[in-house]
Amino acid sequence: MKTISFLFIIFSFINGAVTESVKVNLGFSVTLHTNTVIQSNDVIEWRFRKEPLAKVDRGSISVFNGSDGTFSDGLKINNQTGDLTVTDISIYTIGEYHLQITGEKSTTKSFSVSGLFGFTADVTSLSVMEGDSVSLDAGAPDNRNYDVIRWRFGNSPLAELDRKTKIISTHDDVHDERFTGRLELDNESGDLTIANITTDLSGLYEVIVDSNSGTHTIHQSYTVTVSEIDAVHWLVDHLNQDHKEIITEEKIQSTSATSDVSPTPVSLRLLQYFYSADVNRLMKTFRNESHAP
């Protein structure tokens, strides 16, 4: 699984107004920041091209999702900051976004969002076996546009990288001891690797990449499901091809009777026909490893 995201910040001046151009791979989410202190009487309006998109009027929120339902509930607006989040960027949601804040101090801003077609964030759900290593892509192309990459597990901070200073901070032993000794953060890409993963580490992982300018944030979520390894999978991983003893279904069933896991009939037959091993020795080792602290 490898997903690459590109975000380039380019400023252009059109009739005195600043337009910020953002290029992001399809499937990622983008938050456009107002960077303005919102007053209680301010009216915040977002438009996509020429169509009304979202509005905050004295705390009351209206979201329109486009005249033809283009955004399909893919919009989120913060009624405190006025920031707009566009989830799951697609070819239908790339284009010009316009912000207008009306109040004591009026503000206008434009964002040109373009999508990269070479890469998509279509692999956001991963299924692995316990004991595997899992790598999650931060989607950060270089450190010219942003330095700080943050990872979260559920609602808890997990790891953080400052690419400029090369300082890595992991919170594995502070917020969640289950991650102790399992985390590796690449100091260039910000990609996160979880080694020897266990079933209780299934859940939602999120990467948050803030632009250095503070005007944009890109983020992506990954759902990781970790399944228990059964006796047959474990046996296959530990088979010794030098053994001549043929595995029978009855032998595996009898030796796994005292184990907490049960092989399936289909996997038993496959194992019987294609492999040979000292089942008693392997099953004893399997039980010891399975119940080790």
UniProtKB/TrEMBL annotation:
Immunoglobulin domain boundaries: 19-116, 123-227
Keyword set, alphabetical order: Signal
Domain of life: Eukaryota
InterPro entries: Ig-like_dom_sf, Ig-like_fold, Ig_sub, Ig_V-set
Record's keyword annotation contains Lyase: no
SUPFAM superfamilies documented for this protein: Immunoglobulin (SSF48726)
Listed name of the protein: Immunoglobulin domain-containing protein
Source organism of the structure: Triplophysa rosa (Cave loach)
Signal peptide from the UniProt entry: 1-19
